[in-house]
Each structure stands twice: as C-alpha cells, then as structure tokens.
C-alpha cells in the first residue's frame, strides 16, 4: 500500500525480504491513531513483482523495516523520492502511477476505498504429473521411473499384473544400454590409464602377497608371494610361514641374485602395493643399497598392480579346481598352487602372440 505519511518502508510480511538483519533491540514506531505504536524488529531489502501495463516488473526497496504489528505493508512516498528525486506521480481517481522522465512507469496502484494498493504477483509453481493408467508408456520410461529396476523385475511386474495401471507398449526390453545404470551401479570407475610395456627382461617385476590363508597348509604355510617379470610374464611363487619384512626380503634376495645371474640383466624397477610388508625401513635400506626403484601403487587402486593380481588369481583358481576335482582336503592348498604354477609355465601366454 502506498503511504505518503510513512517515513520508512514498513513490511509486516517477512516473506518479501531477500536480505534481513534483526535489530539487537526492538524499536517502537508511531502509527496513526491516539497512543498507537508498533515494534520494528529488523530491517533489510524487500523484493516483489508487480504488473505494469501488462509487463511484469521486479521492484526492490532497500532499508525496509520489518513491522510485524502492522496489518499492511507500507511503501513510503518520502523514501521513494529520496531515491528517485525526479519521480513523477500521476494521480487519477482510481490509481497512482510513479515514473521517471526518461523511463517507463515504475509501478502503479489500484484504489480500494480510500487507499491505494500495489498489486503483487505471486510466484506460480506447476507440478507435472504423469499417469499411465490412461495411456501406456515405453518400457524404458518404466525402467527410469522405478529407480532403474532390473529388466527381469519389470517384466515380471507387467506380465503378472502386480501393479495396477502399469501399462506399456512394444517389446519389454531396453532399446539401448542405460547410461544411468552403467555409471550409477558399477562398484568402481573404469581404470583407463595405460601401462608402459617392458622391453627387456628384469626391466620391471611385479610382486604381490596372498594370505593369511584360512587353513594352514600341511607344511605350515600361511602366505605365498608371486613375482612376475613384466617382459616375459615368467612367474615365480614362494611360500611363507609369515609376512614379516625380514622373511619376505630373504626370499626376494635369493630371487634377485638368481635371476640376474641366469639372465645377465640387471633388475631396475619393482611394482608393489603400499602394504606394510614392503613399505618399511628394511626394504627401503635394501633398495637404496641395490639402486632399485620401487613403484608403489596408489592405495585401493589394485588395477595399478594388475599383472601380479591377475597372475595370482590364475594360480588360486587353478589350485581350487585341482582340490575339488581330486577330493583332497583344503590343507593341501599350497601343493595345489605349486602344481598349478608348474603347469602354467609350459602353456603359452598372451605376450608370446602380441606385437
């Protein structure tokens, strides 16, 4: 409401404020009427929309007072003149229009009784609903609507009419792979990094340790270590009773000396994970003395040590198959791993057929 007697913009409706600061102590204001006062609780910036000559305009009023006690929101004429000193008030019997000489009308009012009100446009929100009870929809739409449920589940719901109004048309299959399912349901991101292929023996070896075995082997073994040459894919397996740094290093020293002696090459790099059995002072001192480069993988990125992981998995799967087929007890798992490793050495590998 436009008020020529108000010294400040006063708004009783707090929803108009886009910024607001409460006062540390309430201030009383004077209202029309005998001994009539109201409380000023805070101040801020008010913003609202009004329609002027068919065009929706946004009005911003600074330094407005929050006055909960008042029954109406008041727009002060004196405050408008402070900001727009050249404002022109056009008054008719039924309305008041406020404009600038070189600008269109800022806003206009409508007379109700003896008062002039600014018509405020409220935001309209529309909710869009979809119903399939009247019109069947594509199978892919149901897949998306039902939180990307599996194809078999949806087919069962439709065929057995488990849901009223669940109507579809066409084949009950997804026309293409659902990207939402591909990226939302996989357990880990694809590992797109490319590995540099080794060009010579002992250029890089890949090591991994398996254990603790749930069943101790017949020979008292709890762990086994797989060492794979990246160039030839030749794999060596060593069995250990513990995974202490000293026990593992003792086995590796023997491997290191034997391979360099037999191949005439020098070992350069070793790919390992960040396990404590490798990442310690014992191994650090050894690789410093020997001039070796240790390449530790990123934590939880097992793909970076994929050569060792895949080789170890091949041995374990073969050993499990041997035990099941032979009927031997689980305590002979280490012997089965030895058998699997010996047989793997006489089979060709993919590296023999790659460029």
Kindly list the characteristics that best describe this protein:
3 domains, alpha/beta, 5-stranded mixed β-sheet, Nucleotidyltransferase, domain 5
Report on the architecture of this protein.
- This protein is of the alpha/beta class.
- Helix content is 26%, strand content 28%.
- The protein is built from 8 helices and 19 strands.
- It has helices at 77-83, 139-145, 151-159, 179-185, 245-263, 281-290, 306-326, 333-345, and strands spanning 2-3, 10-11, 17-30, 37-52, 55-66, 75-76, 88-91, 96-99, 105-108, 110-112, 115-117, 120-121, 137-138, 168-169, 204-210, 223-229, 235-240, 269-272, 293-296.
- The strands form 6 sheets. Strands 2, 3, 4, 5 and 12 form a 5-stranded mixed beta sheet that branches. A 5-stranded mixed beta sheet has the order 17-16-15-18-19, with helices on both faces.
- Helix 7 crosses helix 8.
- It is elongated and about 110 Å long.
- Mean pLDDT is 82; it is low at 125-130.
The CATH topology assignment of the largest domain is Nucleotidyltransferase, domain 5
Kindly provide the name of the CATH class of the largest domain.
Alpha Beta
SSE-based structural type: alpha/beta
What proportion of the residues is helical, as a percent range?
Answer: 25-40%
CATH architectural category of the largest domain? 2-Layer Sandwich
- Beta-strand portion reads 25-35%
Distance between the termini: 84 Å
Whole-angstrom Rg: 40 Å
The tally of strands reads 19
Label the overall shape: elongated
Q: Tell me the major beta sheet.
A: 5 strands, mixed
SS summary, helix count: 8
């Amino acid at each position: 409401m436009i008020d020529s007697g108000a010294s400040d913009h006063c708004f009783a409706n707090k929803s108009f404020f886009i910024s607001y600061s409460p006062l540390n102590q309430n201030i009383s204001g004077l209202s029309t009427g005998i001994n009539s006062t109201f409380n000023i609780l805070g101040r801020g910036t008010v913003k609202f929309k009004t329609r002027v000559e068919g065009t929706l305009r946004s009005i911003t009023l600074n330094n407005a007072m929050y006055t909960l006690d008042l029954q109406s929101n008041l727009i002060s004429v004196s405050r408008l003149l402070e900001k727009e000193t050249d404002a022109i008030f056009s008054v008719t019997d039924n309305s008041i229009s406020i404009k600038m000489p070189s600008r269109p009308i800022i806003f206009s009012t409508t007379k109700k009784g003896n008062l002039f009100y600014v018509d405020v446009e409220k935001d309209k929100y529309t909710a869009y609903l979809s119903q399939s009870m009247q019109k069947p929809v594509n199978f892919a739409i149901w897949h998306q609507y039902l939180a990307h449920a599996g194809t078999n589940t949806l087919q069962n719901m439709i065929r057995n009419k488990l849901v009223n109004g669940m109507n579809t048309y066409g084949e009950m299959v997804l026309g293409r792979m659902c990207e939402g399912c591909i990226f939302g349901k996989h357990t880990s991101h694809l590992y797109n990094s490319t590995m540099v292929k080794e060009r010579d023996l002992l250029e890089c070896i890949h090591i991994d340790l398996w254990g603790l075995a749930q069943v101790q082997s017949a020979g008292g073994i709890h762990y086994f270590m797989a060492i794979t040459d990246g160039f030839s894919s030749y794999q060596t397996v060593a069995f250990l009773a513990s995974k202490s740094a000293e026990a593992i290093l003792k086995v590796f020293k023997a491997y290191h000396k034997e391979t360099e002696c037999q191949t005439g090459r020098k070992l350069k790099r070793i790919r390992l994970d960040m396990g404590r059995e490798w990442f310690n002072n014992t191994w650090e001192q050894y690789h410093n003395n020997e001039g070796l480069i240790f390449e530790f993988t990123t934590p939880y990125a097992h793909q970076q040590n994929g050569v060792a992981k895949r080789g170890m998995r091949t041995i374990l799967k073969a050993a499990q198959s041997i035990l099941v087929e032979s009927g031997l007890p689980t305590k002979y798992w280490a012997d089965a791993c030895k058998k699997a490793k010996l047989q793997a050495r006489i089979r060709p590998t993919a590296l023999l057929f790659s460029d």
